[in-house]
Amino acid sequence: MADLQSVETALSALLDGVSPLPAETLSCEAAAGRVLAEAVSARLDVPAFDNSAMDGYALHHDDTGRALPIAQRVVAGQPAAPLARGSCARIFTGGELPPGADCVVMQEQVELIDREAVIPTGIPAGNNIRRRGRDVAAGTRLLDAGQRLEAAALGHLAGQGITGVAVRRRPRVALLSTGDEIVAPGQPLGPGQIYNSNRPMLTRLLERFGAEVVWRAEVPDSADETRRLLGEAARRADVVVTTGGVSVGEADHVKQAVAELGRLDLWRLAMRPGKPLALGRLSRGAAGEARFVGLPGNPVSSFVGAWLFLRPLMGALLGCPSLAGLPTLTARADFAAKTGPRRHYMRVQLGFDEGGAHALAFGDQNSAVLSSCVEADALAVIPEHGSIQPGDPVQCLWLQVP
Ligand SMILES: Nc1nc2c(c(=O)[nH]1)N[C@H]1C(S)=C(S)[C@@H](COP(=O)(O)OP(=O)(O)OC[C@H]3O[C@@H](n4cnc5c(N)ncnc54)[C@H](O)[C@@H]3O)O[C@H]1N2
Ligand code: MOO
What we know:
This protein is α/β, with parallel strands linked by helices. It contains 7 helices and 28 strands. Strands 7-4-6-5-9-8 form a 6-stranded mixed beta sheet, with no helix packed on it. It starts with 6 loop residues before the first helix and ends with a strand. The site of ligand LQZAQKY5 has 27 residues, from β13, α3 and α6. This is Molybdopterin molybdenumtransferase.
């Protein structure tokens, strides 16, 4: 295991054999942000009837260019009566088009003289009409399986009168923070101790990736406690995430414990930050195995590791293709960089000008400097044994996504 593994090798090892979790049925309200387990078909045409896109007058297009008596008034939510030729209907946006009418003229183009509407010429059939089924036709696919239920999708479900949907159960994640030096905010700091930055950061990222953090624990630098708490985590969760304790230090007990409780698939990646990242599985007896992701303790390494590995893992467990990879964008580098055997994921801010996108790297790219992540909206990828000069194109992974 001495050689560095590529990110791609690690990703395929991580996703190998992972299948989507079971479905559960939830009210649409409770399903916000969740991933659809099944496609949803439309039950209704939307709109359900031809209706007006404007406040104005409905008529037959052959009756344009003349003054027409106003035979009825159609407001949204009321049925329209048939319209006789040679007359028009006062109509409001969303009002049902009266049978016999085939166009609507907006009121700004109509003059009212002696209680008749003077209609301009040249109004074609279909003018300002929203046809039945134009948005959604009954029987067609409304939403796909694997789609995340964000705002517009929830609106689409409600537009069909649908009240409940089948979604994937959220992946249950146990989050373990290793290290005697780690203290929870709210507690006093002793000498040499630091507050636990990784826990809230990863909790938030995992929630964004569609997971539920069901258990958290602090793991002291002891081989026995590491083994005990990893075993407990595996019983409670689908995925066990640890931070710290995966390097080569004397207090780095995590890998050994994973090997004893299951299998260490892979350790040490050709990436910066995140070199000591470890992947494996933890046995849960008859309940199969939990996936294990050991993120390095440095907060930036944990942050980058979460985007590159936890996000696609949650995507596979949720059957959600949009979580599989990050959108990429080519930007002009505003910085110089040089790499060795490890691919560098640099934290950058993207700007946009006439020349397209440009990437501005945070000044200090050390893996302990979490400031570099706070305002980063992308990771600029500098390939192994690569070099970038200012002005060169650089591939960026966009982080402003769920
Ligand atoms: N001799 C070597 N030393 C190190 C190597 C190496 O190859 N040879 N790799 C370095 C790299 S790269 C990284 S990354 C770190 C990762 O080490 P660990 O994953 O074992 O993490 P720790 O040693 O436990 O912690 C590293 C660092 O991060 C701080 N930390 C840990 N947990 C948290 C937390 N929850 N919140 C905030 N900060 C945390 C910890 O105090 C350490 O400062 O190893 C290098 N060493
Ligand atoms: O691989 Mo480490 O995360 O650079 O400090």
